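So, who can interpret the following?
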Amino acid sequence: MRQGWPEVAGFNDRVMKMVLSGGVLSYRDQEMRLNRSGVPEQVWMNLDYSPVLDPAGVPIGVISIVVETTGRVLAERQRKLNEARLEAERSRQRQLFEQAPGFVIIMRGPNHIVEFVNNVHRQLFNSSDWVGKPLAEAVPSLKTPGRSKILDDVYATGKAVTVQGGEVSYERLPGLAKEVHFLTYTHAPMYAEDGTINGIFCEGFDVSAAECQRRRAEALDRLVARISDLDDMAQVGATAAEFAAAEVGANRAGFGLVDMERQQIQLLPDWAASGLERLHGQVPFSLMGASMETLRRGEPIRLSDAFVLADASSPAVAWLESLKVRASLTIPVMEKGELVALLFVKDSKPREWTDDEVGMLTRVAERTRSAVERRRAEARLRASESRLRFLDTLSRETAGATDSRSILADTTRMLGEYLGATVCDYADVDADGEGLTVLGEWRAAGAISLLGRHHLSSFGAGGALRAGLPLVVRDASELPAEMAAAYRRLNIGAVVCMPLTRDGRLTSLMAIKDNVPRDWSEDEIALLREVTSRSWSHLERLRLEHGRRDIEPRLRAGAPSVARL
């Protein structure tokens, strides 16, 4: 053996010694360096050694079974090297995928078993525990029209599929409402070494923000087109309110016009879900509390839960509680640095309002304000034209009158009918500026007559009227109890009283009254002021003409004497 394989003599010496002593040796893939063809070469062999025994059982030789495994060992080494290289490549790719700006998911097999998801995907879908599960099992709530068929088709045909802005809804966390996202992504086949498809690679981007902006812009365009076709300001407000509530998923919304002079917000018809009380009328600034200052600075007010406010005893909280409101978002509309309108949405459940929702509702509020102002301008123009026509008709009707009573009778009748009032009357005021006598009136059917003596102090009107300012009462029930009772006895729910002063003294009044509360418009107040001024000017001309007619005969009678002098 030493002569046959001198290059491994040491190894064989140890084998012979062990086996001739009765031992058994076995080696697997034993690496050796043999000179079999004149050149040393690296080989691997499986070696089994056992003793050859004489009849007495004494070892007298060694039997060796040798199987060369060089080819298999080299192949196995190459396979492991290839696998290591492949794993290194996969690791490098996964590092790249982890750093990718979009989401990545790799699925294997016909059941689309998740093999890898990157960080963006984990954040978007909460998919950390998806690995090792079929996609359908990993996220059963993932619903996309035709999604399963898309994956199956890509796996079967090898044709990649790209989806632009596809809508996807799923539960990101168990028990929470489904999230809706818009995704742009590509499903591409993955191939094994033999060319067969063994998986699907998907890469994509969450384009929800851009898609929402696009869709909301389209929705806003539709809203503008819709309210542009509406003639009535109230319809504009109600339509915008319903749109705003639908956009953010609220159950109540409305639009209000800010009246700084009256310190109140005039609410247009709102929108509310079934079963909720509707809001209407005026909301005084005092009910809004400190939030009015925030709005006047042009800042939106986000209220996520009214019941956890620091000042839970404030009137605003009590008011919200009575309306079953827990969360609200109020958007101010500013013009030239002044608060002119606001849009609000409210919900009966606590919620956080996002910047995206604030931005969207700000655009809705601005467009609603523009539409409302156009309607108000058109209404003022129509009212102005109507007022001019009325004044022209009134002038013609009273032009031929020669006595004050007929002038005032025609004036009060026409003005009361035109304004749809209950009573229109005129009165003279005593020299002391306290007592007054209603001399004439026009009354609608069933109205109480106010002819006779009254006292200005009973109606809380003396100071303003003596100062030449009109008395405007929009809701008599809101006055102090004693005054409200005086109005109630005369069945007056609202009144506008216009004073006439001469030489700084209050001498006469003309008034329009209604038996129910009424929000007198500036146009109605201006019309009463104009009619009052014209009527008394007309009466003054008549008085002067009557005086001239009375003195002319006396002047003519005295003319000869004057001539002689």
Q: What stands out?
A: The chain has four domains: 6-68, 100-206, 234-240+247-378, 403-534. The longest strand covers residues 40-53. The radius of gyration is 49 Å.
